[in-house]
Task: inverse folding
């Protein structure tokens, strides 16, 4: 173990409020062992141990240290995880609680951040790596870019994904509330309490390790108690209310329409391996809360802006507010001698806390000519040296660049952007800076409302432009209200009124009492001038994570990039894991100055979700593995599984595709062999198909028949009770959308079948037409798809087999083709439909699904002597295609009319009521004779099975691009015909029977096929009428 | 003429039957159990459609349950329930084997009116979810707001459930029911067991209710002239 926490200061009033010195925790960083305390973040623990260099920068490989104490941290980005499977990339050390055994590495730097090889390139190449370096250098040859890109990405670092499966799980929770409060600083707490006291459903979330926000390290008092105590009191009251949900370590990452907000809760990241396990995994390592709120209170506070000066990236350059946070929360004073450079009063707290923690404050450089205010007075009273009208223009460093060793301070002329007078060099090891505060407007911007600049607070605030988002309430610093008293008053006044409009009555809430400090006015300074011109001065960093300098922005504007969006993309400002939280406003201000315009004229780039990176696990939740998508099963599914069926996905259904058997040789049949066997069984003996997935809709009512006539293309007025009919449905554009057999069960009662994939959509289609166009028709629809299990028994032996099991008279005259009967099969009440999709003698047995298995098993118990063979969807496809039966969605694509399919026989041109799609069939386009029409194709070579989708040409010798006249829609080998065959659509195909067409393939082979009738087998349909 | 064809789908009690979840093993975790999931299989489910004015009195006289007229209402009886599904649609769940008799009586009581009654018993199954964490399991499963302030006892909705749909209804303070489609039952059950793992979840088959199948007469078609 290294020196023990040399930068941890001894306990004292207001020091280390959040650490427990009795609970030391061991951790390793870059392979080296350290110790911290419970209550530390990884960042504060590293600082306590004097670890200055935590990473290497993106482009120049410069040593970098911790800068901030929150989500805005650009440098301390680590790779977390003790084992390969638990690796988590790009964790902000400032937001990672320390736990026993924590193992982290820098994301960048090789062999490590202390001794980085890439920095040689950065040092040598630095001056030669201007903005757009990669674009300019690696632009030719273009074909090499993919290679360059890989190298550049590797050099650029950032974390890596784990290469092993994640043992933990992530999940989603849906939440609803009246008021979602984002941020638990004093304003967020007060807003939450105001809403919760009246019984409203409240969710309060905060991205930090504990509630309190700025009050965690404030030395002010609220309601007469120190701010941290006040926080504890309010949180305790909220926790006791059952209408309040408190979510700590929970970042609001996306704010979407209708006040839908995604919260990312890190549930076990602070516990590491000590997290509780259930079922061998951490139960929801992190959780995505999908919150639908009626009102959103945005109390996200503000981020402090650093000043942009030369050498401002060297470790030891810190945000002023972060210095206070570490001292007061974790008793870490990250240096000995401090120089503070500020534009405002608030930052003085860093100097006061530094001194209270035993450090030396060398000087405070205040950019204001006449600093005044309560904090300034306290600094003066403490004997601190205040250099008015000046700023740190450069932080100097040791040779390695590992730590600040001095600050060059000069008077600055802000308006003239130049230094004024002599430069004083102060010896120090720490420079803290504050250029003011930027309200955290990111979430507000997600709604599409652009932030608005306010000169009085020198920052962007959430816009409330033409159409304000209903129920959106930015409060406190997030709304640019930095006075806590004014923020409380605004909440007390406006929140009850806003909620009252939604019927949520809030009792008036008295704002907390607080002492008011006299505040001096801040001054706007973003880019501190240097004694050299920007282009020649030592690097002045704007965006630390992406190594974007003030000079780069200046150069970008000189090179013609005027839109801030273009400047962003050219320089990479605001990319990366921190999304410009620290640097963007400074960068925009610099671009504005270079372009000679105001900041509002320059505008901001667009902030998009997510606010901070979210791991993929949390986004996916439990929708992975076996829960990725529903698998729909029929009542016979387990039987299919036990038979070793191969399955095909049809919609969400798992349907048996084919049933491979063990051959005499011991090998399993190939698909081709299994399908050939199944096809022969159906054509020669008998097969059975699980057809339960077909959509089934029960239709009842006196107008059921009339309704069918309007929905289907063909006629239904004459279909007698007991009979079934094939029907074709068109959309209103005249194109075929579905087909199936519908049966007349009784005068007012029909059973419609639909395609497997179309079932839900067709039910909706029927309801839409009934509810919106023909509400006068008396008819009701009910889905019975899942209620009936359907078994298709088909083949010459079907009758013989079924007659052993049923009390229904199966005689060909007593029970004709296209009729249905009711009776029992294997003792189970059943409806049998004599319809055929194979062209063979067929009986479709339907029973209540709970009784399907005894019937199915009875068929097999009696089936041996008839050669009963189960067959799957592939055999079904071959058999139906031999008969020229179409599959909607395979042989049609939404552009085929019934006439294109040669199904004029299924169109009732003279029906009394104009069915859906009829008028479209009279359009000139649908009357064209050269439309693509369904035909059969017979390859001249019997062994050729054409490729589905293959394009058809008439002249194989024409030059490419050839004129394509159609394509293959279905193609199989037919064991019955011992020949390949296909269905295809060909322009004017119905008049081309007997012609030859050509199918040039990608491999250079051209197949030749003859255009034939689409019915290949039993054209007169005798076999189904046996 | 025969207006509607319907029949008793139940065979003799000697014929075995399978619920949509017959293949899933019961689960009894060793640790704490904060949620118990039960399948109440083999009940009869009837889908009723019609104008409330047409159905109300006949339904009440035949089933003893008042037709819920307010949206999202469900009323519970002894082993029975009647739920509003849409402005002209209700779900009646009764003990297994009683569906056919009730349908016959309802049709008789409703006479020539325009309505529809459809037996959907084979197409869906009833699950109950009971225990202090039942609501947490539901919050992980449905986008619908199941908070007691918004979802009082006696409310029932049809909503998104994981990536499927389900009917969700509240029987009492800690007991909820789900009606899931047969084909989605396996998926829904796996989802529930996974969502309940962190709390401790048990899966049981409810004791089969008294089988009323023997009492029902053989199949017949309603004949009206």
Result:
């Amino acid at each position: 173990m290294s020196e023990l926490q040399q930068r941890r200061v001894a306990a004292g009033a207001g020091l280390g409020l959040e650490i427990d010195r009795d609970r030391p925790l061991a951790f390793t960083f870059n392979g080296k062992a350290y110790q911290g305390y419970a209550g530390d973040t990884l960042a504060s623990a590293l600082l306590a141990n004097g670890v200055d260099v935590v990473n290497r920068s993106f482009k120049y490989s410069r040593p970098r240290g911790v800068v901030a104490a929150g989500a805005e941290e650009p440098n301390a980005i680590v790779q977390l995880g003790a084992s390969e499977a638990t690796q988590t990339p790009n964790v902000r050390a400032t937001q990672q609680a320390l736990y026993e055994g924590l193992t982290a590495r820098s994301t960048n730097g090789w062999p490590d951040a202390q001794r980085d090889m890439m920095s040689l390139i950065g040092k040598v190449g630095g001056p030669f790596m201007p903005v757009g370096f990669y674009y300019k250098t690696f632009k030719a040859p273009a074909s090499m870019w993919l290679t360059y890109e890989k190298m550049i990405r590797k050099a650029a670092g950032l974390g890596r994904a784990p290469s092993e499966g994640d043992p933990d799980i992530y999940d989603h929770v849906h939440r609803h509330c009246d008021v979602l409060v984002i941020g638990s600083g004093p304003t967020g707490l007060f807003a939450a309490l105001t809403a919760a006291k009246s019984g409203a459903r409240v969710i309060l979330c905060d991205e930090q390790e504990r509630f309190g926000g700025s009050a965690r390290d404030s030395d002010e008092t609220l309601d007469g108690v120190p701010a941290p105590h006040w926080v504890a009191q309010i949180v305790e009251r909220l926790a006791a209310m059952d209408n309040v949900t408190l979510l700590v370590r929970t970042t609001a990452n996306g704010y979407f329409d209708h006040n839908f907000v995604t919260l990312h809760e890190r549930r076990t990241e602070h516990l590491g391996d000590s997290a509780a396990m259930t079922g061998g995994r951490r139960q929801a390592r992190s959780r995505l809360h999908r919150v639908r709120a009626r009102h959103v209170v945005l109390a996200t506070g503000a981020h402090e802006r650093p000043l942009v000066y030369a050498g401002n990236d060297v470790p030891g350059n810190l945000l002023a507010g972060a210095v206070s946070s570490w001292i007061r929360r974790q008793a870490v004073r990250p240096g000995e001698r401090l120089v503070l450079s500020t534009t405002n009063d608030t930052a003085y707290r860093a100097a006061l806390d530094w001194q209270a923690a035993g450090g030396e404050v060398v000087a405070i450089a205040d950019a204001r000519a006449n600093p005044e205010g309560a904090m300034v007075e306290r600094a003066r009273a403490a004997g601190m040296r205040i250099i008015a009208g000046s700023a740190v223009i450069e932080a100097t460093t040791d040779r390695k660049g590992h730590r600040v060793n001095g600050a060059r301070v000069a008077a600055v002329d802000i308006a003239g952007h130049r230094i004024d007078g002599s430069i004083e060099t102060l010896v120090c090891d720490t420079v803290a800076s504050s250029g003011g505060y930027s309200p955290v407007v990111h979430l507000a911007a997600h709604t599409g409302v652009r932030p608005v600049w306010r000169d009085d607070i020198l920052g962007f605030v959430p816009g409330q432009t033409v159409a304000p988002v209903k129920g959106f309430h930015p409060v406190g610093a997030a709304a640019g209200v930095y006075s806590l008293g004014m923020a409380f008053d605004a909440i007390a006044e406006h929140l009850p009124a806003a909620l009252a409009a939604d019927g949520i009555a809030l009792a008036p809430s008295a704002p907390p009492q607080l002492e008011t400090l006299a505040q001096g006015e801040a001054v706007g300074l973003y880019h501190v001038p240097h004694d050299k011109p920007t282009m020649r001065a030592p690097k002045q960093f704007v965006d630390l994570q992406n190594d974007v300098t003030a000079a780069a922005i200046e150069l970008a504007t000189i090179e013609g990039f005027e839109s801030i969006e273009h400047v962003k993309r050219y320089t990479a400002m605001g990319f990366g894991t921190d999304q410009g939280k620290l640097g963007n406003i400074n960068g925009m201000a610099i671009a504005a100055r270079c372009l000679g315009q105001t900041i509002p004229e320059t505008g901001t780039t667009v902030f998009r979700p997510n606010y901070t990176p979210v791991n993929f696990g949390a986004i996916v939740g439990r929708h992975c593995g076996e829960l990725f998508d529903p698998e729909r099963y029929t009542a016979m599914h387990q039987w299919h599984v036990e038979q070793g069926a191969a399955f095909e996905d049809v919609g969400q259904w798992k349907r048996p595709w084919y049933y491979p058997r063990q051959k005499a040789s011991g090998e399993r049949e190939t698909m081709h062999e299994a399908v050939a066997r199944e096809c022969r069984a159906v054509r020669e003996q008998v097969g059975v198909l699980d057809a339960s997935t077909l959509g089934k809709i029960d239709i009842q009512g006196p107008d059921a028949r009339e309704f069918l006539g309007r929905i289907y293309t063909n006629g239904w007025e004459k279909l007698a009770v007991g009979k079934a009919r094939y029907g074709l449905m068109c959309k209103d554009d005249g194109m075929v959308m579905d087909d199936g057999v519908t049966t007349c069960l009784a005068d007012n009662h029909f059973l419609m079948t639909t395609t497997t994939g179309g079932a839900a959509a067709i039910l909706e289609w029927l309801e839409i037409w009934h509810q919106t166009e023909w509400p006068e028709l008396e008819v009701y629809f009910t889905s019975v798809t899942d209620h009936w299990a359907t078994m298709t028994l088909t083949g010459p032996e079907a009758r013989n087999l079924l007659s052993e099991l049923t009390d229904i008279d199966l005689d060909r005259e007593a029970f004709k083709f296209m009729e249905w009967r009711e009776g029992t099969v294997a003792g189970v009440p059943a409806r049998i439909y004599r319809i055929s999709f194979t062209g063979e003698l067929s009986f479709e047995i339907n029973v209540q699904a709970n009784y399907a298995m005894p019937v199915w098993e009875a068929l097999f118990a009696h089936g041996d002597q008839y050669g009963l063979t189960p067959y799957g969807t592939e055999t079904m496809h071959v058999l139906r295609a031999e008969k020229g039966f179409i599959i909607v969605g395979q042989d049609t694509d939404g552009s085929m009319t019934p006439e294109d399919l040669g199904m004029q026989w299924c169109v009732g041109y003279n029906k009394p009521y104009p069915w859906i799609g009829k008028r479209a069939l009279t359009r000139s386009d649908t009357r064209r004779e050269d439309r693509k029409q369904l035909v059969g194709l017979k390859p001249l070579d019997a062994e050729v099975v054409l490729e589905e989708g293959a394009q058809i040409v008439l002249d194989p010798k024409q030059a490419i691009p050839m004129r394509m006249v159609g394509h293959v829609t279905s193609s199989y080998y037919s064991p019955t015909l011992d020949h390949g065959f296909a269905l295809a659509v060909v322009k004017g195909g119905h008049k081309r029977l007997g012609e030859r067409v050509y199918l040039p393939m990608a491999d250079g082979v051209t197949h030749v096929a003859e255009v034939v009738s689409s019915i290949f087998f039993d054209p007169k349909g005798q076999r189904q009428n046996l | 003429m025969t207006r509607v064809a319907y029949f008793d789908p139940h065979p003799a009690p000697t014929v075995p039957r399978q619920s949509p979840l017959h293949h899933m093993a019961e689960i009894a975790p060793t640790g704490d159990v904060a949620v118990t999931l039960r399948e109440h299989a083999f009940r009869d489910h009837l889908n009723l459609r019609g104008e409330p004015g047409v159905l109300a009195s006949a339904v009440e006289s035949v089933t003893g349950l008042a037709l819920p007229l307010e949206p999202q209402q469900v009323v519970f009886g002894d082993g029975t329930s009647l739920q509003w599904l849409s402005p002209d649609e209700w779900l009646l769940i009764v003990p297994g084997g009683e569906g056919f008799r009730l349908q016959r009586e309802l049709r008789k009581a409703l006479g020539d009116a325009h309505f529809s009654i459809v037996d959907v018993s084979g197409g869906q199954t009833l699950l109950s979810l009971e225990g202090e964490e039942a609501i947490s399991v539901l919050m992980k499963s449905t986008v619908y707001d199941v908070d007691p302030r918004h979802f009082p006892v006696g409310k029932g909705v049809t909503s998104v459930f994981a990536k499927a749909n389900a009917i969700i209804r509240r029987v009492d303070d800690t007991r909820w029911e789900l009606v899931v489609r047969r084909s989605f039952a396996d998926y829904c059950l796996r989802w529930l067991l996974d969502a309940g793992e962190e709390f401790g979840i048990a899966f049981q088959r409810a004791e089969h209710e008294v089988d009323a199948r023997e009492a029902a007469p053989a199949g017949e078609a309603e004949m009206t002239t």
